[in-house]
């Protein structure tokens, strides 16, 4: 059992957080429901219109938002039900970025994705985006709960996209324009009512893997230089954001059909990740040994940075033991005060529309377990 004194509880005044990230939170994506899957297939076959598909999406999103409320979550998402991919759909909506079919999919540990990708063909920008309307619908049904919007981090365009030389021959110009595009995107979501925005990013966890660092070098980049470029781009995009906008980042090791890509603890990126990014919170994968130990959390210097421990796996349906999770939270308090910790699953349940190898009821049981543990630990 995690212990905290009355003095600590009074001093933090945040053990029951009223603002995001919440003590019990979740990364965002949820298993696509049967009506969503059927409607998407019908739309692809030309059997229903885009308007009819959206009506089905609205109905199912409303249902799963109510489910999130019922199990006790304070922040609600649309489950990314309107997307095929957690990142490509958003990136393809940026000015200067096109969606295309690649020669091969992304190779995971034991699976490969469909062969889709994005490429930068013109100058980057943000003038409009369909996901602004997606957020507005979520916000309209959130009620007293906080509507959380998830988008890929700026780092993901470089990590997952091809940059055509005709568009950018100067890498500094590319990163500069990327940061400005995201700065405009952040303002657009804020103007639409968003007060809880999450950036999803696999690059930071991939840098923790020597194998992935070697692949970075093979692509002509020094890993340390790219880490610095990514950090500056993110911070430039976040500069001057409104005080009442919470921005977090989820650090992912790959999540497709319950498979993964990268292994390795956070040590290699810890100093920059925990003390060099102007974020309000970090969602960290800590569901198994591939994530390493909590020791890198010693680089958390800021008292206003929330660390969301992803101790509940979204990859498999077996429910974690409550006492085991509480012991791991207690272990993390050796490096970060309890008042700066939160709990969530390690990733979403469906980073792509295929989803992880988990039943829908197992998904809800996992999220319910997160809430139950958080209510006991941070009471």
Describe the protein.
The chain is of the alpha/beta class and 379 residues long. 39% of the residues lie in helices and 15% in strands. The chain has a single domain, classed as TIM Barrel. α12 links the parallel β10 and β11. α3 packs across α5. The N terminus is likely disordered.
Q: Mean pLDDT, rounded to whole units?
A: 90
Second CATH tier, the architecture:
Alpha-Beta Barrel
Measured between the Cα atoms of the first and last residue, the distance is 12 Å
Query: Uncertain spans, ≥5 residues at pLDDT below 50?
Result: 1-13
Query: Structural class per helix/strand content?
Result: alpha/beta
Largest beta-sheet characterization: 6 strands, parallel
What is the helix/strand order? Answer: HHHEHEEHEEHEHEHHHEHEEHEH
Net shape: globular
Q: Into which percent range does the helicity of residues fall? A: 25-40%
Structural domain count: 1
Q: Which CATH C-level class is it?
A: Alpha Beta
InterPro entries: Met_Synth_C/arc, UROD/MetE-like_sf
GO molecular function, one term: 5-methyltetrahydropteroyltriglutamate-homocysteine S-methyltransferase activity
Keywords: Methyltransferase, Transferase
Region (Disordered): 1-23
Keywords:
379 residues, alpha/beta, TIM Barrel, six-stranded parallel β-sheet, three-stranded mixed β-sheet, 13 helices, methyltransferase, UROD/MetE-like_sf
Describe, in short, the structure shown.
The chain is an alpha/beta fold and 379 residues long. It has helices at residues 6-12, 34-44, 50-70, 88-91, 131-142, 155-160, 171-191, 203-206, 210-218, 223-238, 270-275, 322-332, 360-377; strands spanning 75-76, 95-101, 116-125, 146-147, 149-152, 161-163, 196-201, 246-251, 281-285, 306-312, 341-345.
């Amino acid at each position: 059992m995690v212990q905290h004194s009355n003095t600590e509880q009074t001093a933090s005044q945040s053990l029951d957080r009223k603002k995001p990230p919440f003590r019990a939170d979740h990364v965002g994506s949820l298993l696509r429901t049967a009506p969503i899957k059927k409607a998407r297939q019908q739309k692809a076959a030309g059997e229903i219109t885009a308007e009819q598909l959206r009506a089905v999406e609205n109905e199912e999103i409303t249902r799963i938002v109510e489910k999130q409320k019922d199990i006790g979550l304070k922040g609600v998402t649309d489950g990314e039900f309107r997307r095929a991919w957690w990142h490509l759909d958003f990136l393809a909506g940026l000015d200067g970025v096109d969606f295309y079919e690649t020669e091969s999919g992304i190779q995971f540990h034991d699976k490969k994705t469909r062969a889709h990708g994005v490429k930068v063909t013109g100058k980057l920008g943000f003038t409009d985006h369909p996901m602004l309307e997606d957020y507005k619908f979520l916000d309209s049904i959130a009620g007293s709960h906080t509507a959380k919007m998830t988008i890929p981090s700026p780092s993901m365009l470089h990590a997952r996209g091809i940059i055509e030389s005709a568009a950018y021959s100067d890498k500094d110009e590319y990163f500069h324009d990327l940061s400005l595009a995201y700065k405009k995107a952040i303002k657009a979501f804020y103007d639409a009512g968003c007060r809880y925005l999450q950036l999803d990013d696999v690059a930071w966890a991939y840098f923790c893997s020597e194998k992935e660092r070697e692949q970075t070098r093979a692509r002509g980049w020094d890993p340390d230089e790219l880490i610095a470029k990514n950090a500056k781009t993110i911070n430039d995009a976040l500069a001057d954001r409104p005080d009442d906008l919470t921005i977090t980042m989820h650090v992912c090791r790959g999540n497709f059909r319950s498979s993964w890509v990268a292994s390795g603890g956070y040590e290699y990126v810890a100093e920059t990740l925990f003390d060099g990014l102007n974020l309000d919170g970090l969602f960290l994968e800590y569901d198994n040994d591939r994530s390493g130990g909590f020791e890198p959390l010693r680089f958390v210097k800021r008292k206003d940075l929330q660390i969301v421990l992803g101790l509940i796996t979204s990859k498999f349906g077996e429910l974690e033991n409550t006492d085991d999770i509480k012991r791991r939270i207690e272990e993390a308090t050796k490096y970060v005060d309890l008042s700066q910790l939160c709990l969530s699953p390690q990733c979403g349940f469906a980073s792509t529309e295929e989803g992880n190898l988990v039943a829908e009821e197992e998904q809800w049981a996992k999220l319910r377990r997160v809430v139950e543990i958080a209510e006991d630990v941070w009471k």
